[in-house]
Amino acid sequence: MRQRIIVCPLIENEGAYLLCKMPSDRGVFPGQWALSGGGLEQGEKITEGLLREISEELGAELTIETVQPWTFRDDIRTKTYPDGTTEQIYMIYLIFDCKASNRNVSINDEFEDHAWVLPADLENYDLNEATRVTLKAKGLLPS
Prior knowledge:
Blueprint: E1 2-13, E2 16-21, E3 33-34, E4 38-39, H1 46-58, E5 64-80, E6 86-100, E7 113-117, H2 129-137
Parallel strand pairs: 1-6
Antiparallel strand pairs: 1-2, 1-4, 2-3, 2-7, 5-6
C-alpha cells in the first residue's frame, strides 16, 4: 500500500471557510465538498508544499496572510482514477489554519466548484467524511 503525506489548509476569510467540490468521476471523495490540499512532493518542505498546493489548486491571486500548523490525522482511503481504476492509499493529513486576505479563487480542474461558507451553513453541504471530521474537531460542526 502506498503512503502519501497530504497538506491540507483550512482557509478562513472574514469568518467564512473555503470549500471545494470534488469532481464526480474521480478522487478519494467523488462529488463531495472538501478542503483543498494535496500530496507533498519528494524532498519538499511542508509549508512550501502547502503554499504550492494552494497556488496550484486555488490560483495565484488568493493571498494567504498566515499559516499555522493545527493538527494531524491518518487513515486509509480508496482513490478512483479517471480511467476507473482504484488504489488504496495510507494517508497522513497535516492540517493547517490559514487566513486569507481576499477571496480571489480560480480553481483548477481538480475541483468542480468552490464556496466561501459561514460555519452556520456548513451542514448544508455534502461534506466528505475527512472534512466533516476536521470541521467537528475545529468546533465548526456539532459533534
